[in-house]
Amino acid sequence: MPEIGYTLMGEQSPPRQLVDDAVAAERAGFDYAVCSDHYYPWLSEQGHSPYAWAVLGAAAYATDRMGLMSYVTCPIRRYHPAVVAQKAATVSLLSQGRFILGLGAGENLNEHVVGAWPHVIERHAMFEEALEIIHALLSGGVLHYSGNYFEVPEAQLWDVPELPVPIGVAVSGPDSIDLAARYADVLVATEPRPELVTAFDSAAGPGKPKYGQVPICWGPDEDACRKIAYDQFRWSGLGWPVNAELPGPRSFASATKSATIDQVAQEVTCGPDVGKHAEAVRKYFDAGFTHVAVVQIGADSQRAFLEMAERELLPALR
């Protein structure tokens, strides 16, 4: 049975609301929740960006059934991978094994706050070293590691879950697929591309979960939803090669000056038509994904959206 997730989008909501929304999402019947991990919002109109790991810890303790996932954490600049492993083990214990550590190579937007953003070849090499460190520490025991980018003279996690913390790796093409095949228990992607699923199954073996994510803007007034989607999500049309490089909200605002409301509405389903939103989710399942998390755009609409999802969206998808 495909599983439906809910997105705790820190770029658009303050921390207490995110935890309250996680509790409400569990009550509404969502199978899991993913949490973005940013230092900046994409655009100033979004207006927030709390510390994701505090939110995940609070959500882990406040919920009982729903799975949780970082979507996704970059372990190469802002966080040292040894610390990421410790955070993941702790959230897994708080959630009693309901946590998946989603990892990716990151964006300049969030990582430059601690120093220069490496070029793409270097950061992919750093990401592989980080995966080696995290995997080793979550497996238990003492780690001594000396790499080209990271040093771990001696580290050991003292609070480790009995069951391993699953690791998800975000992919976009052949190189990241190869890395995911070696280190990931879970595939993560943000586009419903069946070739990613096929390539991952071929390299890693069939049967591993594949997680996707789809933005929507549900609400009673389609025109109002289109405006909200434009104000807060027009950055998504730039594509990940651009999204990974721009340094801040002002840059994203400048890069999207020519975007129109109609262009954004072609990428994001808007308005009260639940069938239209359900079809956007089904594109991922049709592409072979096993899990899809919905992003409801707009902080003020979350509670109404969750009530609607319980009544209409989740039953339609199931």
Descriptive overview:
The protein is α/β, with parallel strands linked by helices and 318 residues long. Helix content is 45%, strand content 17%. The chain has 13 helices and eleven strands. The chain has helices spanning 15-28, 52-62, 81-94, 108-111, 120-138, 174-183, 194-204, 222-233, 240-243, 249-255, 261-267, 274-286, 302-317; strands at 3-8, 32-35, 67-70, 99-103, 143-146, 151-155, 167-170, 186-188, 210-218, 269-271, 291-296. The protein has an eight-stranded parallel β-barrel, surrounded by seven helices. The protein has a two-stranded antiparallel ribbon with strand order 5-6. Helix 2 (52-62) runs parallel beside helix 3. The relative contact order is 0.15.
In short:
The chain is an alpha/beta fold and 318 residues long. The protein contains 13 helices and eleven strands.
Enumerate the strands of the largest sheet in spatial order, edge to edge or round the barrel: 1-2-3-4-7-8-9-11
Approximate helicity band: 40-55%
Number of strands: 11
Which structural class do you get from the secondary structure elements?
alpha/beta
The main sheet comes to: 8 strands, parallel, barrel
Strand content: 15-25%
Please report the number of helical segments: 13
Task: Write down the overall mean pLDDT.
Answer: 97
Q: List unreliable stretches of 5+ residues.
A: none
Give the radius of gyration.
Answer: 19 Å
> Which overall shape is indicated by the principal axes computed on the Cα atoms?
globular
Q: Measure the end-to-end span.
A: 8 Å
SSE string: EHEHEHEHHEEEHEHEHHHHEHEH
